[in-house]
Hints:
Helices cover 0% and strands 60% of the residues.
Amino acid sequence: QVQLVESGGGLVQPGGSLRLSCAASGSIFSIYAMGWYSQAPGKQRELAATMSWSGGGTYYADSVKGRFIISRDKDKSTVYLQMNSLKPEDTAVYYCYGRITPRQAITNDYWGQGTQVTVSS
């Protein structure tokens, strides 16, 4: 069916930047929205940013607003998260999210495998 594959995580110093990518593949009919969630150790998974696939409208959590930028490449079915001015509190596993309609199937929510982002000096 549909898979979300993430890449781009790693270790960066405070104030640094990182770019996450998430590519959707499989028998996709349409994408309604994609986004990114973060989950720090011992914490619940939280929404960081989402993007409407058709119109390109964005939503950001207050904690990342002004620092992170979500974008998409519709031809590649890929969503990106440009993470700037990173802080230690951004350290988390980042999960890609997609609300996607597969071919000959109903709309479902899909999750990537997660990619570790560590911000430390």
